[in-house]
Amino acid sequence: MSDVYESDQLLSEYLLMHYGKHQELMPWGFGPAAAIGFPTRTVGYFPAETGARSLDLGCAVGGSSFELSKDSEEVLGMDFSHSFIAAAEEMRTKGHIDYRMLETGNKTTSATATLPEGARPEQVSFFQGDAMHLPADLGSFHRVHAANLICRLPEPEKLLRRLPDLVQQGGHLVLATPCTWLDEFTAPDKQPEDDTFTWLQNQLKGSFQLVSRHDEPFLIRETARKFQWTVSLVTVWQRN
Question: For residue 123, what are the domain limits?
Fold first, then answer.
């Protein structure tokens, strides 16, 4: 898999995406402000379930894992990026991370990421791993969250085939994907032949029932004047 997610610049962008203040992410009086808070919004599709055991696949720097901790007894966050997991672990143990935001050219300003209000870091643990080759002893979960992960895997069907074992009967799965299938991440013969939604339905039928489908925007700030605005397909499933 690509090591693109190990750069300092991308780490900064994801810290902003997961923890940035509104003014830091969108320092203009106009713009797609509704795309802010994506990690919180995707976790919000789970039904409230105090005491749940939750798994956050492709957790990046941990924002969604800490959101899950608010009503979970245990949260496991996993990401392929070593630098993302190191940042998530620093956030868990210290409650904050200082970093630099790129403004323009080589000019940066200081910023501090802090835990979301109500998060319970003592309920969270992180590990670096491969979503296509998860440990056999993970057990099962009430909630499994995988945001913007599927279309970055070389063999996404390996993860989809593992999901029935990861989600407990009656438990819920939230998948989010911008459906940007790029050859640099997923070879053409491993990409869906149909549209992504139809492909997911075909892959998950028999083990999961579709609960709902949504379109959620997300925002990545590259500089103070350059942004990525993308719409992710969010599907919510219940384990049969």
Answer: 4-239
Mean pLDDT of the 146-174 span:
97
For CA atoms 183, 229, 4, 129, the dihedral sign is: negative
Q: Which residues pair with 214 in a beta bridge?
A: 234
Element (H, E) at 41: helix 38-43
Find out whether 136 and 102 touch, Cβ atoms under 8 Å: no
The whole-angstrom separation of Cα 173 and Cα 10 is 27
Q: Which amino acid is at 68?
A: L
pLDDT of residue 122 exceeding 60: yes
Instruction: Indicate which CATH number applies to the domain containing 225.
Output: 3.40.50.150
The two three-digit tokens of residue 42, written as one number: 């995707």
Rounded to whole angstroms, the maximal C-alpha distance in the chain is 53
What mean pLDDT is reported for the chain?
Answer: 95
Count up the domains in the chain and report the number: 1
Q: What is the pTM of this model?
A: 0.95
Tokens of 116: 């979301």
Cα 226 to Cα 217: distance, rounded to the nearest angstrom: 16
* Separation CA 53–CA 68 (nearest Å): 9
